[in-house]
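Hi V.,

Quick status before I head out on leave. The structure for the redesign project is tokenized and pasted below; the design run finished overnight.
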């Protein structure tokens, strides 16, 4: 099991500070530093700067989506960073959602078929192959890199939660990146990925199962709880056009599977009636603590580093190979708090 970090949740981290934090994370023994894509700083640009300032720590995208650039462009970027970092790139790829697709003027249609073809082109490009791809969704002319990469194999992980995507992951990807799943759900996802890989004649033991558990640490645990509720509210009310139309296939479906359907409905009602702040205030503590019948959501509010480690243990037992810890700061001094967390991890 590897412990990884991410500085991309609940606060803005300046790009130059992210690079310094990556250096500290490497020194403290973390396995990888990850960066996601949304409307924040760009993963490949930021990870390239980290690559130039580190030697061992792996560099992950969790996750890039398939709407912002062509798969050939993505393959060129992946090959460049993998060579620059001496083979340290971990490439997470996701289908995103209707909102992100709309930023780029593209429809969110048939995501499973699209991501399969996208990943195939990225692989061919990054390997330095000469190809002419004629798929259902993507078509290219004859293409080949102008150089032969010294690290041609870029591991590609699909962001997956539902049955269809996780089965596709087992057949075609090098592993899965799981966001917003409690230990029971992680076990189910890992089992589906492994079963699908085995059925496709692949070695399931070679796949990675990577999942995120957000962490906030403060001597007064209630302050950490309130901060994580802000992040949780974002996920509970995301893609309102979908759930207001009765087509909730995103994070809302996950909270229902965790047993928090009533809480989800109440939070969304507050959001619709009163706005985001009211939605945050409507989140009950039980979602972060769990009860006798339900596990907490994958967020840890802790008062000490030992409590963080103890709370992560059930996720370790769930079958993952890497835990990504997106650190969520309480104060405006995001860099100072993240630095303190990294230093506390291994004094």
């Amino acid at each position: 099991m590897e412990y990884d970090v991410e500085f991309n949740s609940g606060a803005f981290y300046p790009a130059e500070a992210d690079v310094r934090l990556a250096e500290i994370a490497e020194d403290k023994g973390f396995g990888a530093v990850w960066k996601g894509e949304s409307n924040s700083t760009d993963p490949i640009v930021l990870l390239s700067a980290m690559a130039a300032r580190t030697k061992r720590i792996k560099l992950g995208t969790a996750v890039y989506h398939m709407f912002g650039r062509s798969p050939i462009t993505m393959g060129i970027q992946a090959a460049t960073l993998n060579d620059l970092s001496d083979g340290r790139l971990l490439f997470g790829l996701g289908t995103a959602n209707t909102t992100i697709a709309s930023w780029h003027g593209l429809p969110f249609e048939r995501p499973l078929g699209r991501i399969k073809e996208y990943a195939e082109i990225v692989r061919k490009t990054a390997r330095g192959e000469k190809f002419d791809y004629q798929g259902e969704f993507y078509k290219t002319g004859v293409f080949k890199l102008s150089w032969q990469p010294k690290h041609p194999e870029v591991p590609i992980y699909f962001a997956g939660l539902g049955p269809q995507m996780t089965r596709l992951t087992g057949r075609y990807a090098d592993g899965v990146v799981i966001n917003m799943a409690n230990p029971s759900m992680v076990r189910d996802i890992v089992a589906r990925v492994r079963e699908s890989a085995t059925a496709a004649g692949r070695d399931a033991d070679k796949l990675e199962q990577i999942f995120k558990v957000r962490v906030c640490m403060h001597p007064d645990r209630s302050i950490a709880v309130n901060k994580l509720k802000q992040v949780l509210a974002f996920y509970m009310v995301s893609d309102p056009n979908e759930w207001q139309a009765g087509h909730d296939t995103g994070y809302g479906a996950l909270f229902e599977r965790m047993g928090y359907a009533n809480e989800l409905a109440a939070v969304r009602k507050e959001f619709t009636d009163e706005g985001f702040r009211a939605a945050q205030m409507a989140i009950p503590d039980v979602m972060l603590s769990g009860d006798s019948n339900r596990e907490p959501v994958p967020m840890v509010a802790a008062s000490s580093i030992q409590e963080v480690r103890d709370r992560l243990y059930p996720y370790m037992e769930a079958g993952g190979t890497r835990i990504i810890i997106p650190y969520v700061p309480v104060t405006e001094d995001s860099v100072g708090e993240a630095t303190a967390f990294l230093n506390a991890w291994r004094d």
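Above is the designed sequence. The chain has a mean pLDDT of 95.

G. will cover questions while I'm gone.

Best,
W.
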